[in-house]
Amino acid sequence: MPPAHPGTTPDDAARPLPHGRARLLPDLGTGPVVCVGETMAALVPDPVAPLATAAGLALAVAGAESNVAMYLADHAVPVRWVSAVGDDPFGARVRAEVAGRGVDVTGVRTDPARPTGLLVKDPAPDGTRVHYYRRGSAASALGPDLLADPALSGAALLHLTGITAALSPSCRALLDAALDGPVPVSFDVNHRRALWRDGSAPAVLRDLADRADVVFVGLDEAQDLWGASLAAAQDVRALLPGPALLVVKDGPRAATAFTGAAPGATPVTCTVPAPRVDVVEPVGAGDAFAAGFLAALHRGEPLPRCLRLAHLTAAAALRVPADHGPLPPAERIAALLAASDDAWSRLTVPEARRAAEPDPEAAATH
């Protein structure tokens, strides 16, 4: 686990663990992060318009876990995406697009009997609705046997989300088995109301989150799931004492990480403000945030830098209409991770051109 650093604050006391599994992450070493979950073909009105009046539809891919995998690949972290797609053109498109981002997709199964999942976006002035066509999809048939697949061999970390738990009983069993297994698990609560029509989401997602090693949840998401009385990140920690590392995102304001749930560890709390971002579209920002945090954790960065890289990666997603946006140059990321707290607090994305940088338009005229 990252040690305490300037700006972190010890908690009042360590909380007892509700489960027997020790909550202290090992050194993640050089093994890959393995992201497990469904990615679907996505139909999006093009140009943007309500679905009922759209002139045409553009084909894209959409999946929380593969989004995380693609951003991890951008950060040069060895990463695999493991899932299932149908033996159909949508499945081929999904596999090719994720692989084209530098992600290992050799663990993606092709199911000859079930289709690739599909979603259709319906933009409207008050927000975008999503229509899912994923019941009986190839990925919904995944189960605990997946954990024996060679694609999971040598994994440093498994990344899972609450979306998978909602797809089918066998997918829920997969998450249960992973959380009881030997590989550390990163879990993004990622509540999708449309997938939980039976009302079980609060209980199921709380149980899964409290059993994971690293957990990501938004404060507003936690309030929606578990009650408005969760007024601050510390309240979410009290509700989820189990994870070795809990990250609570407070929208455009800040993110707070809590560590030290393992016996004998000194609990630590670290809050890093989010940079100001000129937002184009929020879709995919949560996946990008998780990927940035896990990338820094994988290479052993201290906790404040994990949160900074998470914010920077989320900003890349917020700046584009699609799920995946370009990261700043590696040297600029390194400079921002090392910047003073004061300089970080003044960061705005996109940044104003720094004086030392050439003006590409001026250069083109000479």
Automatic annotation (TrEMBL):
SUPFAM superfamilies named among the record's database cross-references: Ribokinase-like
Region (Disordered) residue spans: 1-23
UniProt keyword list: Kinase, Transferase
Alphabetical list of CDD domains matching this protein: KdgK (cd01166)
Gene3D superfamilies: 3.40.1190.20
Single Gene Ontology MF annotation: kinase activity
Keyword Transferase found: yes
Domain Carbohydrate kinase PfkB: 33-322
Organism superkingdom: Bacteria
InterPro entries on file: Carb_kinase_PfkB-like, PfkB_dom, Ribokinase-like
A Pfam entry, by short name: PfkB
Similarity annotation: Belongs to the carbohydrate kinase PfkB family.
Stored PANTHER family: 2-DEHYDRO-3-DEOXYGLUCONOKINASE_2-DEHYDRO-3-DEOXYGALACTONOKINASE, SUGAR KINASE
Protein name in UniProt: 2-dehydro-3-deoxygluconokinase
Species whose genome carries this gene: Actinacidiphila rubida
